[in-house]
Specification:
Elements lengths: L16 H9 L15 E7 L8 E11 L5 E12 L5 H17 L5 H7 L8 E2 L5 E2 L2 H15 L10 H14 L18 E4 L2 E4 L9
Antiparallel strand pairs: 1-2, 2-3, 4-5, 6-7
Helix pairs in contact: 3-4
Length: 212
Amino acid sequence: MTTKIDQKITGYAVVGEDESAQEVSNVAAIAPLLERDYILEGSTYKIKTPMSEHAMYITINDVVVPAPDGGTHRRPFEIFINSKNMEHFMWIVALTRITSAIFRKGGDVTFLVEELKAVFDPRGGYYKKGGRYMPSLVAEIGEVIQQHLVSIGMMEGQLNSPELLAKKRQIEEKLGDNAMRNATQCPKCAAMSLIRMDGCDTCLECGHSKCG
């Protein structure tokens, strides 16, 4: 091990084996990599952006590991992204390999969500169906990972319920595609999907409304 010396040397001493062993023992051990079973359970999510005519399919597979309370819980182990559109093939392969490596290291992987969702496309983002603004394709991949982590209990959050999805479809059918032109940011979910409907501000993404 190399040690940087910042002061003038005035003497020296030979370190014994016991002291060296004690110093090594103080180094924090790296957690072992998660092992892959032959068969893994997972979920596949579909992304369809206005940037491409082809959809993107994201598959996240999980492993079951022991929990501190004696039970078990699911953890993400690997991620695959597939699409007929080969435009982003190189960086997508790199992203999936790095993300899968982080999954296999174990520990807290929720930071990936914040990092990916903070990526902005310099060419501009896009609106998903339903009015949710996405700053980049990478940010939407981060949102998919967030949705998966929420579904397996690794993150707190609320998934789109059937009731909320039905309400969003009803609003879309009533207002049409031009509803988002004057949309503002929702104070609850921060999406650029707050519109004025029937005299009340309503969020097309999370359902927030000042009228209750």
